[in-house]
């Protein structure tokens, strides 16, 4: 019985070839095998959003997907978004608006925030969207609703919303 | 998590065959519910069959004027689809009322139908649960049952089905298309797809071992005002205490399905017939055979009032 599987995907543009225990989540592959520890493990059950990364351009909970299910996929993590000295506008806005206290949920919050603005521009509806047949607008209510999968135990929510609103207004 | 072997299925037939030859196997698509349960060792498959490579991810019109939704269409894509938004607004609304953006990006149409209950006793492996371990007893009966089912219950189980999407599918009379390991194709009306708990609450659908969902078909649009109203303990990212999915026509007639109250999406023909007489009449029909606990009796009133608000909004 073979309990391991070979898988190849790209992470932040670089090809990665791994031979993993089938049980390895994408989150554990990133942190424990590729040593990309920017992505955080919070609840490990899809409830907190700390592990949010992008797979083929869409935000997902990396704790609730197996690494071996991602053959050929493009993975992007917080490390790929920006780095000290060359911050993504969303990272800079989180710093400017104090969008965190302990910082543990922050990589997930930022990955999610960037995706939220793209999802609104792509006219994907949310629970607070009014008319389903017109273009969805970027509003504070839309941002709050769409960020509900990212918890912040420090309660920096209002500053997080301020950061996202600023980036939305400046057209990232 | 227990160790398991893993394969990427190359065709629908191969997937169904692989699953029928190993009763300990499971299909995996989004995996957002299955992996969670595997981490807790509530689900312990010895083999996973990854069906993500099978296509089955398109939304196409049917010859009858309806819509065929591939089993692997992600919840986000289904909610955002132009035809769904225009003609089946109830479905879009139900989808975006559920889970989070991250989960909806991954969760599939078929997986959503097959998600398992969120009963806390099902999740707590230290407690008896007939659904998790048949014959061990039900901890919810006599326990904390505020969130549990009020109708269609049995002495073995009072768990609810957690899906929002399925409530809309039930109100819209969807049909679940499957392929069995022998290659035969089947069409199961959603009314018959989920089972009531009875004496076997661990058997939740009519699917046989190895039977794979390939699509969900919606009949031609029925028009009307389509409203999904979900009542929950926080404003977002929470399961329903109750939810009401309704299609209300200009003359006040319509159809209604209710979530958070039963082991399956709850719809009663007699309630549809009473809808034009108002929420009280319809709710009476929905809950004629209700067996609530002291802690969840409030759900019956809550559904009546929620339905009243939905009817008022439709008349708006």
UniProtKB/TrEMBL annotation, chain B:
<dbReference type="InterPro" id="IPR005107">
    <property type="entry name" value="CO_DH_flav_C"/>
</dbReference>
<dbReference type="InterPro" id="IPR016166">
    <property type="entry name" value="FAD-bd_PCMH"/>
</dbReference>
<dbReference type="InterPro" id="IPR051312">
    <property type="entry name" value="Diverse_Substr_Oxidored"/>
</dbReference>
<dbReference type="InterPro" id="IPR002346">
    <property type="entry name" value="Mopterin_DH_FAD-bd"/>
</dbReference>
<protein>
    <submittedName>
        <fullName>Xanthine dehydrogenase family protein subunit M</fullName>
    </submittedName>
</protein>
<dbReference type="InterPro" id="IPR036318">
    <property type="entry name" value="FAD-bd_PCMH-like_sf"/>
</dbReference>
<keyword id="KW-0274">FAD</keyword>
<dbReference type="InterPro" id="IPR036683">
    <property type="entry name" value="CO_DH_flav_C_dom_sf"/>
</dbReference>
<dbReference type="InterPro" id="IPR016167">
    <property type="entry name" value="FAD-bd_PCMH_sub1"/>
</dbReference>
<keyword id="KW-0285">Flavoprotein</keyword>
<dbReference type="InterPro" id="IPR016169">
    <property type="entry name" value="FAD-bd_PCMH_sub2"/>
</dbReference>
<dbReference type="GO" id="GO:0016491">
    <property type="term" value="F:oxidoreductase activity"/>
</dbReference>
<dbReference type="GO" id="GO:0071949">
    <property type="term" value="F:FAD binding"/>
</dbReference>
<dbReference type="Pfam" id="PF00941">
    <property type="entry name" value="FAD_binding_5"/>
</dbReference>
<feature type="domain" description="FAD-binding PCMH-type">
    <location>
        <begin position="1"/>
        <end position="223"/>
    </location>
</feature>
